[in-house]
Input
Amino acid sequence: MSNNLTTTPLVSVIVNCLNGERYLKKSLDSIYKQTYENFEIIFWNNGSTDQSKLIASEYEYKIRLYSTKETVPLGMARNRAIRKAKGSYIAFLDVDDWWAPRKLEKQISRFNNKDVGLLYCDSTIIENNIKYNHFSLVSPFIGRAGGRLLEGNFMTTSSIVYRADLIKSLPVIFRDDLSLLVDYELSVRVTSNCEIDYVNEPLAVILKHKESYQSK
Output
């Protein structure tokens, strides 16, 4: 896909990193391989003590690197990164996950409905060398979700794209007082105030391992 950057909206891809050197290059490379070309990367190095900052600094095109010496809760780090985002849409990619090349292209094209504030897709989960699709375990939903997410989380963080003006208008985006489930808690609040849609393809790959956020 060849995009006219003057007519396609900017997507801010937020990558929060804490000691992610083992997986980081594959994750970042998957962003640069996107067929949707109008993106920026907000890379937030959350006090890593490994080579993550060095690896990220090797990428110079479309990336802005921020680094802190101290490690703060994930919600606080993501809120800081969001404040730097300039895009009309905001996506998150965990450092141990990666995207299929047409992920952003297929999702952004479905935001033509102005009532849709969040768009997600199916994900391939890799756990203990076994692969399965997230939608094989949960039923995706379109429209006004209400409390459906409370019945079961049918979205993975790295599959979601938000309208930036929607989440930036919230009094609180990610809660600083939660060490886990910050993504889930935000999605519950967002989906109660807008319509949601999804692409029925596994366009994100989620790697579950003992150190991963998803496993925790």
Summary: Helices lie at 24-32, 52-57, 74-84, 103-108, 148-151, 164-168, 182-191. The chain has a mean pLDDT of 92.
